[in-house]
Amino acid sequence: MYLVTAEQMRELDRITIDRLGIPAVALMENAGRAIAEEIIELCRKRNGGHASRGIGRTVDNGTGQDLTGFDVSGDRALTLDTAAAEHWFILVGKGNNGGDGLVAARYLREAGIAVTLVYAVPPESLTGEAALQRDAAAALGLSAAVYGQDPLDFAACSGILDALLGTGAAGAPRGVYAELIAAANASGKPIVSADIPSGLNADTGEMHAPCVHASVTVCLAFLKRGLLQYPGAGAAGTVVVRAIGIPVSLAREVGLQSYWLTPEVLQAGLGVDVLRHRSPEGHKGTYGHVLVAGGTLRMSGAGLLAARAALRAGSGLVTWALPQKLLPAVIGAAPELMLADVGGDEQGNWNAGTAAELLRLSAERDVTAVGPGLGRFQGDTDWLRTLWEGTEGPLVIDADALNILAETDYSHWASRPGSVVLTPHPGEMARLAGISTAEVQRDRIGLAERYAREHGVILVLKGAHTVIAAPDGVSYVNTTGHPGMGTGGAGDVLTGIIAGLLAQGLNALQAAAFGVYLHGLAGERAAGLRNHPASLIAGDIIESL
Ligand SMILES: NC(=O)C1=CN([C@@H]2O[C@H](COP(=O)(O)OP(=O)(O)OC[C@H]3O[C@@H](n4cnc5c(N)ncnc54)[C@H](O)[C@@H]3O)[C@@H](O)[C@H]2O)[C@@H](O)CC1
Ligand SMILES: [K+]
User: Can you tell me which residues bind AMP (predicted)?
Assistant: First the structure.
């Protein structure tokens, strides 16, 4: 499923209306009806009635697919047995988002639900399609109040539709908009947001103050980027994407290149065999050979986790290269691994002299993963450069190897035949990009896309909803995973998985995207196996692969 910015959404609107000749008011009608359907669905579930669709983060963009991958059905009759118990406040902004709310109000009324329109601004100031909807609502006799002029008691309603600000919003909500948002949040009533929660930056997921905290967000036509990026993702509640008559086929014309990473996107878009078929004639040589370079005396576990994860990801063979001093201590830690002595110093640290042996080892293997538990050492920049320029196959760079990169301008290094996958967490990304961690988190998709394009690498920006970006501008946002995965070593496991997939012949973008997806899925599974997700440790993720 595509992800769009507000600007791209406006372009899609323009093409649909101006070129295809589909009237804006028809799109608004579809939008409002879809919103009403989702409100009725929410009421039904809340009252213990039959839920017509699966619970969770759901989407319906004509594909009948939800964000957790379950199939969903589409019983959306606009009726509600318990309608008499409902009274919804419809918060109406000045623009088309408000227009959507006015349409929804009509359909809710039709279903027998009491509605009160709450205009943020005097209704006379509405224009275009929104004004048309205002007049239709008035002609139907829907009760209306103007915020600040008429008395309003939020305690009297059973739910709130937030149709204040959509993709046309600029900056933090001002004046009466801010007051209404604060009052809605304080009411404790369930809030359904039209398109995006008012106060959310639709592109970056940044939450302005104030920002609506929605139970459900009915996103219209295309999934807005901000709904998948934290902190905004946390304010959106359950996200439902509803088709409103804008053809998905226009996406190509507008040049959409950002996707929510689903099994369909992996399979059809990226060409990944998500079932990971193994040939009946296959043998260990069929599935590639990973070289993991990492681990020091104090952080040997990082190298071990990455190497074990590469095995569990399906790599036929895995060699763990580590300082000679450590080698006797790790014998038998994972009997399936091969160990390689690269020298190093007396304390079991890596040193500049290990580069030659590493190059030799790497030449005989399909992929090299470097960084987990590597530590820093004298001459490490040249050491990494030797590896970068001297190895032919793909290179996965993580942890301290990223910190080495961050301290040098590697754009001058010779371009390499094999691809490069960088897997920074937000702190490492901040060092790579020369900005603060807070700035990294402000627009993760945008930053990942820029960095990947500028540096010609596949970038995996880790954290909740990991972003994968490629040099050609394509990006993916992954939503598998679990908060329990915030534990030491989880990143080393991801590095190993990506390397293991590369060894099996996936290209760098496929391996990065599928690796992130599988890592999250395994984390979810592992968390479910513990008595409490907080008990999850990185090794559990490997065992759940
Ligand atoms: N044809 C279309 O363009 C369609 C638009 N749709 C809806 O329209 C929305 C976009 O509509 P608009 O472009 O009219 O914009 P919005 O309705 O999002 O908001 C624009 C209005 O809010 C005011 N405003 C902007 N930022 C503000 C702030 N920070 N504080 C207070 N007021 C602020 C502006 O003065 C303007 O009047 C979408 O999110 C979607 O809900 C749907 O109806 C589908 C079709
Ligand atoms: K809204």
Answer: 462-466, 491
